[in-house]
């Protein structure tokens, strides 16, 4: 900075301060961990089912998802039919009960029957950041959901 005017030095120092603030602010990649989404009243989009990625075909009437309610009820959409039921969480254990669905004829049952089998096999839950995993009795992943912000 030798030979630079005082005004020039102030401008350079000001730019460096702005760059440092941007690099360490909340939007930086070096920021802290993503806060964990609450289990209840969150829209959980199905992204993986028994190790296979879930890709919603164009023209499908909606994406598979579920929402856990505060009152112990769960509802969602399987890709063709809507479902409802009850759930119980005790620590890391999660059990589904009394699951029921509409009975529309589905031209392409990509996920529905597997998803309902997963509900029956679920014994645990893993929740971290925006990821929810349904686990079997041995702790193996059955399905993975991601939290989606509602408009």
UniProtKB/TrEMBL annotation:
Residues 1-23 form the signal peptide. PROSITE patterns: PROKAR_LIPOPROTEIN. Gene3D superfamilies: 2.40.128.270. Residues 37-146 form the DUF306 domain. Keywords: Signal, Stress response. InterPro entries: DUF306_Meta_HslJ (IPR005184), HslJ-like_sf (IPR038670), Hsp_HslJ-like (IPR053147). It comes from the Bacteria. PANTHER family: HEAT SHOCK PROTEIN HSLJ. This is Heat shock protein HslJ. It comes from Marinobacter segnicrescens.
């Amino acid at each position: 900075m030798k030979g630079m005017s005082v005004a020039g030095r102030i401008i350079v120092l000001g730019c460096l301060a702005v760059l440092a603030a941007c690099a360490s602010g909340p939007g930086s990649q070096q920021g802290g961990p993503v806060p964990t989404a609450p289990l209840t009243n969150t829209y959980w989009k199905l992204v993986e089912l028994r190790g296979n990625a879930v890709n919603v075909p164009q023209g499908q009437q909606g994406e598979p998802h579920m929402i856990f309610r505060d009152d112990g009820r769960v509802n969602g959409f399987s890709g063709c039919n809507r479902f409802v039921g009850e759930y119980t969480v005790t620590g890391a254990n999660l059990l589904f009960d009394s699951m029921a669905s509409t009975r529309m004829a589905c031209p392409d049952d990509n996920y529905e029957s597997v998803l309902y089998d997963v509900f029956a096999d679920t014994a645990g839950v893993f929740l971290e950041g925006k990821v929810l995993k349904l686990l079997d009795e041995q702790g193996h992943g059955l399905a993975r959901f991601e939290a989606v912000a509602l408009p």
